[in-house]
UniProtKB/TrEMBL annotation, chain B:
<protein>
    <submittedName>
        <fullName>Sugar ABC transporter permease</fullName>
    </submittedName>
</protein>
<comment type="similarity">
    <text>Belongs to the binding-protein-dependent transport system permease family.</text>
</comment>
<keyword id="KW-1003">Cell membrane</keyword>
<keyword id="KW-1133">Transmembrane helix</keyword>
<feature type="transmembrane region" description="Helical">
    <location>
        <begin position="99"/>
        <end position="121"/>
    </location>
</feature>
<feature type="transmembrane region" description="Helical">
    <location>
        <begin position="133"/>
        <end position="152"/>
    </location>
</feature>
<keyword id="KW-0812">Transmembrane</keyword>
<feature type="transmembrane region" description="Helical">
    <location>
        <begin position="286"/>
        <end position="307"/>
    </location>
</feature>
<dbReference type="InterPro" id="IPR051393">
    <property type="entry name" value="ABC_transporter_permease"/>
</dbReference>
<dbReference type="InterPro" id="IPR035906">
    <property type="entry name" value="MetI-like_sf"/>
</dbReference>
<dbReference type="InterPro" id="IPR000515">
    <property type="entry name" value="MetI-like"/>
</dbReference>
<feature type="transmembrane region" description="Helical">
    <location>
        <begin position="172"/>
        <end position="194"/>
    </location>
</feature>
<feature type="domain" description="ABC transmembrane type-1">
    <location>
        <begin position="95"/>
        <end position="307"/>
    </location>
</feature>
<feature type="transmembrane region" description="Helical">
    <location>
        <begin position="36"/>
        <end position="57"/>
    </location>
</feature>
<keyword id="KW-0472">Membrane</keyword>
<keyword id="KW-0813">Transport</keyword>
<feature type="transmembrane region" description="Helical">
    <location>
        <begin position="227"/>
        <end position="251"/>
    </location>
</feature>
Length: 434, 321
């Protein structure tokens, strides 16, 4: 008995360790059967990993088909892994030297971590037409003046609202923050949740902090804090932004229990679809969700930019957006030319056109015709924007980005004062950003 | 005399020769047997070594390095990671949450499993249905359970809050506030794992000899006395192994917290498993993550040793009495 139970225990313990470490084994097996670099002349295989689903996945599939037709001796093995798992699997694959030849990322701090570890190919000298990319998006994967990734999509963060609810309550699109606050009062009186929020994954709430800081202090605040050029994350602007957030929470501007609602499970979107909530600050992917989940809602759907804060220094045309996906090549690929060619196909005008037509997202590539109504609006905003702010958690080094999301989450949960949150951020920033 | 003794010794040596050859044959047979046993065990041993022992050792090895999980060259830092860990408030918080979990597992899950087993084995009506109902949660995958309960706990439309409202109570933001979130997840874990203990208890209760109960009855024992003096002592080994499973299970748990709270909703609900994941795969601190994993291993090992030791002491005392 004793021995058996001890054995069980040992087995269980090991399972725990395994769960932490087995990944590398799994992937290496995958790779072995995939035979990424069999390189025996006639048939070449390239591994390509990404994290997108739905229409975007199909768009990449079409691009790969075109690539394979142009290069008949090449076969591309596509692996699609959902977001969080994706990050983990790429890390393990990279450390085990079994990384995919071409992989997707969000650029910014996450990609930089791989660049610093010398795992990503420098694309600067490669046969790539860099002029066709929108510069800010390309800069997101540029480190030390070298380009390590090619952007395809730009996902805008903006307010989506229910036009019908606004009409019924005699509301106009708010231009200023105080208008937004008075709208919130009106909507609350009519038993509608003014703002839908699913903050369990923490990034939806972080959008508020990012926009408020930008509207209050301008885009320099973050840049100065990030580059350590005379500013910090304990800047008065961040404290102020934290206060605005907690004011919203105390106003009951959000649906109840928002900090416990995951975004993917869709309860917050449901509130929008069922006219229970009036507005939601979300990524452009919301359009996609509406079309997939509840297409009838599209006729009620409107968009407006984050309103200006009175007395704030920020230019109200400033936009927050994420670049996704950004394509990169691993440094030790056996077929650099082919990998770059695949990159070019994945960012070709044809792919970009397909992407813009079907993904509901703005594209980071010039010379594309936009038909989708939302994408048109978004593209205009991008073109008119004074500056584009990429999300902190993707721009900063991962550990700091994570802390930014944690502290903002605590601000929303009223578990931290704005001063405490700002100080915690600055303390970590001093450790990490030198 | 002397000849006699010579013969004697001769015969002795002869017989001893016979014995030794016999022994050799037996030994040979045994050796053959043990090689056969070894050969049959070999595949399992190999798998065990490659997938279990090796990762354990490499995890311990990584824990001495500062490493982001990617770089080719790791920096050896000795025990620095462990020192950092000891002064890391999040680690202590996570450990505290894990200890909560251990407490709930041992003092809620196991008794609940015992009660469920008693109910299912009792003579009430509908026990077959109950048997199935009780066992269902254990058949579901952790992710499915997590998602199911996220909807159960939904602050607006969740059945639990609607039920509370019907009874006239205020809605509770189950997963939103960190205090409630822990309790909410603990409820789910109890719901998920109590059936496993039920099965264990059921199996060992069926194995208790009917004669013991008959003897107790003859001695005039009532139902309660029968439980405490026959059933309970007979279940002791199961209780011990259940506790080991519960303690180790709660120290190493990860999935339900990850699914329901998104890998630690704020650090207040962090547990060791999610903290390890977060450090290794999100913060790019593979070395530090391995340190956390190693400490989890050591903690689990220590608690198992303690349980085993007290159990053996208890057994010895039982014999002496």
């Amino acid at each position: 008995m004793k021995k058996i139970s001890l054995f069980i225990v040992l087995a269980m313990l090991s399972a725990l360790i395994l769960s932490a470490c087995s990944g590398s084994k799994e992937t290496s097996k995958d790779e072995a059967s995939g035979g990424s670099n069999s390189g025996s002349g006639d048939q070449i295989e390239l591994d390509f990993w990404h994290f997108d689903t739905g229409a975007r996945k199909d768009i990449y599939g079409a691009a790969i088909k075109r690539f394979e037709e142009k290069n008949p001796n090449v076969k591309v093995n596509v692996v699609q892994v959902p977001n969080d798992d994706y990050k983990q699997r790429v890390i393990i694959a990279m450390s085990g030297g079994e990384a995919p030849d071409v992989f997707a990322s969000w650029g910014g701090g996450w990609l930089e971590e791989f660049v610093k570890s010398d795992k990503v190919m420098d694309l600067t000298e490669q046969d790539i037409e860099f002029d066709k990319f929108i510069e800010v998006a390309l800069n997101n994967s540029k480190f030390d003046d070298k380009i390590y990734g090619l952007p395809l999509g730009i996902s805008l963060y903006t307010f989506f609202y229910n036009k019908e609810i606004f009409e019924q309550n005699g509301l106009e699109v708010p231009k200023t923050y105080s208008e937004l606050l008075s709208h919130i009062e009106v909507l609350k009186k009519n038993d509608i949740y003014p703002l839908a929020l699913a903050n369990q994954p923490k990034w939806p709430g972080a959008f508020y902090l990012m926009y408020l800081a930008d509207r209050i202090g301008g885009e320099e605040v973050f840049q100065n804090a990030h580059r350590r050029t005379g500013g910090g994350f304990d800047d008065e602007v961040y404290v102020e932004a934290g206060k605005y957030i907690q004011e919203l929470v105390e106003l009951d501007a959000f649906n109840p229990g928002f900090n416990g609602i995951p975004y993917d499970s869709g309860q917050a979107r449901q509130m929008m679809y069922s006219d229970q909530a009036a507005m939601m600050l979300q990524t452009g992917a919301f359009v996609n969700h509406v079309r997939e989940e509840f297409p009838e809602f599209e006729e009620k759907l409107g968009v407006f930019q984050f309103p200006a804060v009175e007395g704030g220094k920020g230019n109200p045309s400033n936009i927050s957006a994420g670049v996704s996906p950004t394509w990169s090549v691993k440094k030790d690929t056996k077929h650099p030319e082919l990998a770059v060619a695949l990159l070019n196909e994945l960012t070709s005008v044809e792919t970009a056109q397909d992407y813009v037509n079907r993904s509901g997202n703005v594209v980071a590539i010039k010379g594309v015709e936009v038909e989708d109504e939302y994408v048109k609006t978004f593209t205009e905003w991008v073109n008119e924007a004074n500056s584009i702010q990429f999300p902190y958690d993707q721009t900063l080094p991962p550990e700091l980005g994570e802390l930014h999301k944690d502290t903002t989450f605590e601000l929303f949960g009223l578990g931290m004062t704005p001063e405490e949150a700002a100080e915690a951020m600055e303390k970590k920033a001093k450790e990490i950003l030198k | 005399m002397s000849t006699q003794s010579i013969i004697d010794t001769e015969s002795k040596t002869k017989s001893s020769k016979v014995v030794s050859t016999e022994k050799e044959v037996r030994k040979k047979r045994q050796r053959k047997k043990s090689t056969a046993i070894f050969l049959f065990l070999l595949p399992a041993l190999l798998i065990y070594a490659v997938f279990i022992l090796y990762p354990i050792f490499s995890t311990f090895n990584y824990s001495f390095y500062q490493w982001n999980g990617l770089q080719a060259d790791k920096t050896f830092v000795g025990l620095d990671n462990f020192k950092t860990l000891l002064s890391d408030p999040t680690f202590w918080l996570a450990l505290k949450n894990n200890l909560y979990l251990v407490g709930v597992s041992v003092f809620v899950q196991i008794p609940l499993g015992l009660v469920m087993a008693l109910v299912v084995l009792s003579k009430i009506r509908g026990k077959r249905l109950l048997n199935v109902l009780y066992f269902l949660p254990f058949l579901m995958s952790a992710v499915a359970i997590g998602l199911l309960w996220i909807f159960m706990y939904d602050p607006v439309k969740g059945p639990i809050n609607q039920l509370l409202n019907v009874v006239g109570l205020e809605s509770v933001h189950w997963l939103a506030s960190s205090d409630m979130a822990i309790i909410a997840v603990l409820i789910v874990i109890v719901w998920q794992f109590a059936p496993m203990y039920m099965i264990l208890f059921k199996a060992s209760m069926v194995g208790i000899a009917e004669e013991l109960y008959e003897a107790a009855e003859i001695d005039g024992a009532n139902g309660r006395q029968k439980f405490f003096h026959v059933t309970f002592p007979a279940l002791m080994p199961t209780i011990v192994s259940s506790s080991i499973l519960a303690v180790v299970g709660s120290l190493k748990t990860f999935d339900m917290f990850y699914v329901m709270l998104g890998g630690g909703s704020g650090s207040a609900t962090e547990i060791l498993g999610t903290y390890m994941y977060r450090q290794s795969f999100i913060n790019f601190n593979m070395g530090y993550g391995s340190t956390i994993a190693s400490v989890m291993f050591i903690l689990a090992l220590i608690s198992v040793i303690i349980i085993q030791y007290t159990n053996s002491v208890r057994k010895k005392r039982g014999i002496l009495e």
